[in-house]
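Review this fold:
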Amino acid sequence: MGRLDNKVTIVTGANSGMGRATMLLFAREGARVVGVARREDKLADVLDEVTRAGGTGCVVAADLSTEDGARQAIRTAVEQFGGVDVLVNNAGVGAAYASVQPGSMNTIEETTPEMWDHVMAINLSSAFLMTRGVIPEMRKRGGGSLVHIGSISGYRGQDTAHTYTAAKGALINLSRSLALAYARDGIRSNVIAPGYVRTPMVEEYLGVFEDETARYQVNPMGRAAEPAEIANGCLFFASDESSYCSGSLLVMDGGLSAKGA
């Protein structure tokens, strides 16, 4: 028996990194997975891997920072599999996005209002729109699990990337509020807070872990997490094993934040 047998799960940002790893793991654990991202070509590769492994799923290419995109993703899950049991809000951008959108990871003084809105739309509004849409569907099924991918930067300050840190901080407190508001509906809401993860989003910053001295100064374990390790945290919150967890924050950073500033 899989830990997610027959649960319908939506994973956003499923085309790479933590989202891809989560979609693959959930499929192996028996879930019917709906992967969502903007890039249809990469989503097709993930779905092919799911089906070759004997899993069941589908993919949706949509912009989740828009209401239409969120509706399309949720509608597909309902039409294909009958509802929604689990939502993993993983879609977002981080440090490396500065090379795609210059000015997106700046200090507040150097951030334009337009760029603030742009990053907030991707990192926070997408979670708002998806969560808002799935709650009625979860209520129909007697409950569900909301899993949000935050960051240790959501509760620690940074000297730059202020829009990013604000979005991740807001996501943490939104999750706590959701936990309070929807507990009686059987809907749980929890956050994963990773540190460094070996994904395309931060690949250019991971060279420090090749230095035998510096890597232990950056992180007590001397390495970045693998996406599959973060996916394991998502699996815990998605499964019934975390049935008494709601409003929780699971820090998965290799001990980085334990050492303080």
The CA atoms of residues 71 and 232 lie 27 Å apart. The radius of gyration is 18 Å. Strands lie at 8-12, 32-37, 56-61, 86-89, 144-149, 187-194, 249-252. The chain has one domain: 8-249.
